[in-house]
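As described in the Methods, two query proteins were run sequentially through the folding procedure within a single session, without resetting any intermediate state between them. The first query and its resulting structure tokens are shown here.
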Amino acid sequence: MSGLGRWSLWIGLGLVVVAVLSSVLSLIPVAVIAGILGLVALSMAGYEALDNATDRAELRRRAAKVAREREQGH
């Protein structure tokens, strides 16, 4: 995960914690805003993690294809 993904993950987790604490303290507008922003940040981090995983899987598929072609002598 890149720096932006890690940053989004930690900021998102922090905002979700703020949202929970705000709701416990009955600061509902703060809880709603922090919760929405936290979910946006966590979804950005999740998207980047999935994108990196699919890129790595594609590289493994390409490497396996090249290895099979080399074994067959093409």
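Immediately afterward, the second query was submitted; its sequence and tokens are:
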Amino acid sequence: MFFYTLPILFNSIRSVSPTECLLMALALFALLYISVSAEDKKWQPQAYSNFLLASWLGGVSLYWVFWPFFLLLNASLIAADLLAKSGLITVSGWDDIHFILLFPITWWTISIWRCSNNTRLRVWAALARWVTVALLVEYGLKLLIRIDYPRIFFNCEDLLLDYGSCF
């Protein structure tokens, strides 16, 4: 996450400074840490026959909900961005990839929030929630770059079929 968007935000758009982003991120983490319930309950994993449904309902450990999808999602986002930067996919193909990833991200976000109490330390629950909010901010930044600054990110000279998307 933020592999290409933060450099574009800080160097080309210049609407916010890195210090301001860091302060906002720390304030958001503190707010999420406070919002996680402090009750110390002995959580036991529920038996499930369908992992996706059990995760959706909050019956899986936070570790097993967070890490597999986080790694797969970041690999997908970086691959889509690298393909778009090199001109191997069009701008609308890049849009399609992000639109398709939006539905699993919705499942992941809801599962993280429901399973965040299924960990021993509050800090892990707050970090997992913070990453989901950061992912939504990443999507917002990608949408901003796509709509207002496409010539900064996309290799518009090589996109003969989809050149109109660069304006």
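Helices lie at 5-13, 18-35, 51-57, 62-86, 91-115, 122-148, 150-153. We note this only descriptively and draw no conclusion about the first query from it.
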